[in-house]
Design goal:
6-stranded mixed beta sheet, 7-stranded mixed beta sheet, alpha/beta, Metallo-beta-lactamase, Chain A
Amino acid sequence: MKIKKLAQNTILITLNSGKTILIDPGKYNIDIDKYTIGSFPSADVIFITHKHADHYDLEILKAMLLKKDSIIFTNKEINGILTREGIVSKVVSIGDDISEDGFIAKIIRTDHVVRDETIINFGIVFAADSSSFYHSSDTRYIDPSLLPNYTKTDVLFVPISNRGVVMGIDDALVFASELKPNLIIPMHYDSPKDKDRVNPIEFKTKAGNLGLKVQILSFGEEITL
């Protein structure tokens, strides 16, 4: 399995079979030298966790679908928007299990509140190619004891920018310390609001002091599990 970071929270997974899965086709801080809307990669399966622009951009999605018919999984809110656009998608809810050729996905609850609005959102746990990872999407701290045990995965993607809408560095450290993944990849720190305020190196250093391994991915960077 290969994992590539495309934008702030946009992750492309390539299975050993060649099947591709893309999480959150968003535009926030997309590296335009590598991925313009027209050159954004297609994917066999697309997950859209919620409506915010760094997770969902309609024009990027349409450009992807021009290249390949994708299976889209999303929440009921985005499903309604896509239906009006003539785009077919499947609604998933917290606690759902998804079994597709080559992978299993489980839908995990989040706590994402922006300006007093509770955002319809979900995280995802994937299992494929003898590896597992947890993409928490945008969420404030949730006590891991209240989450399913299978959130203890090989790799954890976790937000670190805080601002009251997602976990900050310290919350993410507590969260990761309790889940104990083999590798942590921080996300949600590249936006104009955060890039001069949140330093992923600080997160990596503090995590290392706790015996946790962190890898910071730049846009377009890919790792193999």
